[in-house]
Every structure is written in structure tokens, then in C-alpha cells.
Amino acid sequence: MRQLNENADVVIIGGGVVGLGLAYRLSEKGMKNVVVLERGYIGSGASGRNPGGIRQQLSLGENIILARESVKIYARLSGELNFNIMFRQGGYLILAFTEREVEQFKKNVKLQNSLEVRSRTIRPKEAKEIVPMLATDKLLGATYCSTDGILYPYAVLWGYAQAAERMGAKILTFTDAKGIKVEGGEVKAVVTDKGEIKTPVVINAAGAHAAEVASMVGVELPNKPYRHEIAVIEPLKPFLDPMVLSLHHTLYVGQMMRGEVLAGVGNLDEPPSHELRASADFLPKLARAIIEVMPQFRHLAVMRQWVGIRDMTPDGKPILGEVEGVRGLIQANGFGGLGMMLSASAVKLLAELILTGKTPKMLEPFSLARFREEKLDKEMYIAGVH
User: How many folded domains does the chain comprise?
Assistant: First the structure.
């Protein structure tokens, strides 16, 4: 057990990819007294329960820009951290099974291209050339981006954690934030189950528990926790370069460098929940979807399944930055199914905000204040969104 700091320059609540990434970026910029509070072990939350897909093929310009910059960071992050994050740019193939999807995907590719993301629309024949086992009898088209990829989430977490600690950050696992003290509208301290830490800045990077943390100081977030189940299929020799995504089936499939195949499918009828127990109907639903898309999977064995909790906002965009009324409280949550994809660039921008006191222009579209608007543009490229 590590001794609790009496004081800190910043306390980050949540030891996932956002919290650890931010601890690394702040430490890299010279901040010496950074503390991360993680109620479980590193990787116990959504950051350790996702397939590691990294793509820029999104539908909202602000999300596309964060994803584009994150891909650039991931391409060099192994060397930067001196830790192999197993990032492989094998591309992302997104399938269209309806005319509506075909037309929408064309518009999205046009937007992506305008923002310097080299995605393109392709015909079913070319999609099958990229993924030979793909069934194309019902496929109407697809989009593809060769610079998208996949990484090993735990490696990113461990790499961030070790690099941050080398530069002086303290990561306290199994330490639960119980309250945030505010006086005169300013953050003064964080109360944990092991004592109190005085600090002028608190980062709410608590993932699916972010709304609970914000409520400690009377801030209401629209975030809701939604279960998402994933299965790992027996390891095989490399055969699947890109991640494959079908929004029509709420399905994604990808193969890691070590050979295992990860697959997930969404359940749009399930209410918000923090329930981590696996369900009985997940595997039959996954089997139906994956066999329709890639029939050869009917012969493969499932090794295990698990549940992750997505911290979803109503528009599929994260909440990043300061909030009115509580000086020193910064939100870094609401990433939903895009945490690994967007966080690498998001944490650099948040570190700039914390160190300079000025909000970078790229962060402005992610303000909590946007929910005052009557109409929100929604991110459509999340499998199983509500």
C-alpha cells in the first residue's frame, strides 16, 4: 500500500486510459505532484474490457479530428513510452447492408476526407478481397480506411502508468474517492476511503461512474452506463487484418497480434446498468450475427465472454473541460465506445487546459454546456448505441 499524499497539484479520479493518459501528459510537461485514484486495479473498468479498435471513420467532425490525431499519437506511442502497445494499422472495414447506410456512409466518407482522413467507399467485391471470408450476398457496399487499426488495451494502460510513475506521478489503486470538498465555488480537496488530499484541481475521469463523481459537488451529467458484452474466440494464425464493423448487426470482429479473435454485439433493448455478469442470450445473438457476416466462424470455439460498461452521453461525444460553478473541476468522461479511439489526443488537450488555464479550440465542442441546446448532432458510428 502506498502512502496517501496530503497535498497534490491535481487529483485524477479514475485509472483508465483517460486518467492514466492524462497523468502521463501532465507529468511529461513537468507537473510533479499528480495523483491518480483508482477504486480497483488498473484495467478493471472499461479500458481493460474493450477490443482495442482504433478508427477515424466517425460521423461527427469533432470526433473525427480527435480520432485522427489519436492515430498519429498511437503510431509513435510505443517508442515514446518505451512499452510496446501492440498497435497494428490493419485498417477498418465498415459494412453497409441497407441503401440508407450506403448513402449515409458516402456522406461520412466525404466529411472524413475533408478532414484529412483517407477513408473510401468500396464495392462488395473489393470488401471480399480485403476480408476473403466475408459473405457478400446481402452486402451492398462498405467503407475502408487503411490507417485505422487495433491495439492491446492493457499495454496502453501499463505503458502510461509506468511512464507517469517514472516521472513522479503517484497511482493509488484500490483507493475510492468518497467526496470532493468545495469552498467558495473552488475545489479544495478530495476525500478518499483512506484519507483526504488537498488539491485545487480534480479531474473526473471515472468512466461509467462519472455522473456519480460529478454529483458529489452538485454537477449533473447526462451520462448513463450501458453494458456491452464481448467474447474472445480461439486463437488462430493471422487471417484478419482489419477490424470489421457492421452497424446493421451492431457487430464488430477483430484479431489481435497474439491470434485471438475478439467479437462483440450490442443490445439496444437493455436499460442502463452497472451489471457485470454475462448474459445467457449474448452468445446466441453473437453467433447469429457473426455467421451471417462471416459464415466460417460457425466452426470456431468461444473461449470466454465478459462485460464492459460504456459511459454514454446522449450525442456520442465525450464531455471534456471545465464546468460552470465549480472552479478546478474538469470533466474527462462520456467517451462511450470511443475511449481508446479519442483519448490519446483528448488527454493532450486537457493537459494544455490544466497547465495554461485556457481551453484549446479543439475542446470547445465537447463542453458540458452543449446540452443546453435543443438539438444535438449525434455520432452514429458506435455499434450498439442507444
Answer: 1
